[in-house]
Structures are given as C-alpha cells and as structure tokens.
Design a protein that fits this description.
The protein is α+β, with helices and mostly antiparallel strands. It has ten helices and 14 strands.
C-alpha cells in the first residue's frame, strides 16, 4: 500500500494522501505507526521561497519556522524568535606536501591568534565567539568545549616548538570584495609571525575551485546547516581535498548507523570535539544575524536527547 511506498521512509511523517512532492512544496502528515512513539505534530507543510518572500510569508502568518529570513524582517516582526545558525570558519589545507599547516601546533597557533571581535565589526556582524564548527542551536554541538582566549605569545611559542622560530608564510585565497576582512585576518596573524600571501579572486567560481581542489592553503567562509544537524557540517569539512580526519569520518559513519538518538548525539559531540582539537578548520564566530526563526505562537521544546518529532533530532513542536 501507499504507507509502504519507499517515498515515505521510516520516519514520523508520510506524504499526505492525494499530494505529490514537487520542487516547490511538500505536504506531510503524521504516521501513527512511527517506531519512535506518538507524533504530536499532525502535519507539516514545506514551501520553497526566496528570502524576501519568506519574510512576507511570516508577516502574513503563512509560515511558522524558517531559516535565514531577511534580517530587517526578523527584527521588525514581533512574532519571531531567532536562533543563530552559522559559523564563520577558516578552513586550512593540511594535505600539501611540506606545508607547515600539516603540523597541528601551527594550526593551533593560528587559532590562538585569530580575534573574532574585530573581524565581526568589519563585516558588520555581532559575534558569538565559536568553540566549534556549529552553533549551540544545532544538535551535535558539544557544550564542554570553550574557545581559548587570544594568546599571541603562546602562538609564537607553538610555532617555535613546531620548528618555525621565524614564523611561516602561507597562501590565503579569498573573494576580492572581502578585502577588508582579508586584511584584518592578515594583520592579526602577522602579530604571531604568520605571514599570509594574499590571493584575491574576483570570480566566486575561481575561489570555489581553489578551495574545493586543495589549490590554496587557507580561505574563509560562513557555513550554516540546512538540515539543522551537526552531521551536515561535520561531513562537509572532515574529508575534503584540504583535510581529512579519519576519526571523525568513523564517528559520523557510526552516528549514521545508530537508531539510538542519545548515542547518536554523543557520537556527533565527540566528532565535534575532535574537529575542534585537530583544527583542520578554525572556528571563529557565529554571526547573530544568521538566524533560524520560528513563530512565538509555537512552543519549541528542546529535546535533542530523544527521538525528534521533526525527524531532525532538534525540537518537539506544540501548538499553544
């Protein structure tokens, strides 16, 4: 029957009878045979809209949860509650033969020298210093991690211990319109003896090509997960042309293959800790202007340690 159609999967929802998923919309209804127990949310409607249209939909009370609506609308619309969903990151290339970035102490020195506040100010953002690759709103965030205070002296000592008493020089690729951000990163790292050879790119596709193929030592970007789960962010950065962390790859595979949500969460938190220790990607800050927003007329109950009724191990939603 339709309930056994592969399109319905094994989650808490099934495709609504009489509807068909399209690129613009998806209608779901609760599946009362769900192995995780009672499904409190009886129906879900997903609608694909661009930024401005998402804001208008909220103003017209046509939506309850959204990612990244226009900031002006978020601030003006009194019924929205906002939680950040992005981190400004500096990925490093640890795979180039002979690169000083292959040494974890050099990567740690970069981490200790980067100062989030001046960077955020240049970019017109209000920062939350980041201890890991995802913000606290995302399941898999490890609450035991903290971002160390900036320590240029310790960074210089780490470079010396790594065999670079006179500092290092690395290539730094970025999108040319972000020159001020690049200059601030260069200024900060120079204080510790880390010289960046600037490589501005006027075409986004060229930057993307270099970043994706290991064609540079370092770049920066802001990443947010569209599935609201740490497995997304961790999988994006743990095995690339620039960096591979086999321990994290194994932890993610284990997380994917477990149906125990508490165990799964622990595996993701362990993977997050490993990434933040090895520092193949430097977490810098979460912009407060990178929101997940939801209507205050809904109550979102944090429940990331048990089966999640949205199917993303994030929250239970109840109508007031």
């Amino acid at each position: 029957g339709k309930e056994n159609d592969p399109i319905n999967g094994s989650g808490p929802f099934k495709v609504k009878d009489g509807t068909k998923p399209t690129a613009e919309s998806l209608e779901l209804t609760a599946f009362d045979g769900y192995h995780g127990g009672k499904v409190y949310v009886r129906s879900l409607s997903f609608i694909a809209l661009n930024g401005e249209d998402r804001g208008e939909a909220f103003n017209a009370n046509k939506g309850d949860i959204t990612d990244s609506p226009p900031l002006a609308i978020t601030r003006e619309h009194g019924s929205l509650t906002v939680e950040p969903n992005a981190v400004f990151l500096i990925p490093l290339n640890t795979k180039r033969a002979g690169s000083p970035l292959q040494n974890q102490k050099v990567r740690e020195a970069i981490h200790l020298t980067i100062d989030p506040a001046p960077l955020a100010k240049i970019r017109g953002e209000e920062p939350i210093p980041a201890s890991q690759l995802m913000p606290s709103s995302i399941p898999g965030y490890n609450p035991d991690l903290t971002r160390p205070a900036r320590d240029v002296a310790k960074a210089k000592q780490l470079l010396k211990e790594a065999g670079y008493p006179n500092g290092v020089t690395i290539n730094f690729t970025y999108y040319a319109p972000s020159q001020k951000t690049a200059d601030e990163i260069s200024r900060q790292l120079a204080e510790a003896g880390i010289k960046l050879k600037q490589d501005p790119q006027t075409e986004v596709k060229n930057l993307g090509q270099k970043a994706a193929t290991g064609g540079t030592d370092m770049y920066f970007q802001t990443y947010s997960t569209d599935i609201l789960d740490a497995s997304d962010t961790l999988s994006v950065y743990s095995d690339t042309a620039n960096y591979t962390n086999e321990k994290v790859v194994k932890l993610l595979a284990d997380a994917q293959n477990t149906f125990d949500s508490s165990k799964r969460l622990g595996l993701l938190q362990e993977a997050s800790k490993e990434m933040s220790t090895d520092l193949g990607v430097i977490p810098v800050y979460t912009p407060k202007s990178s929101p997940i927003s939801y209507n205050k007329n809904l109550v979102l109950q944090r429940d990331i340690n048990s089966s999640n009724l949205l199917g993303i191990y994030w929250a239970k939603v109840y109508a007031k």
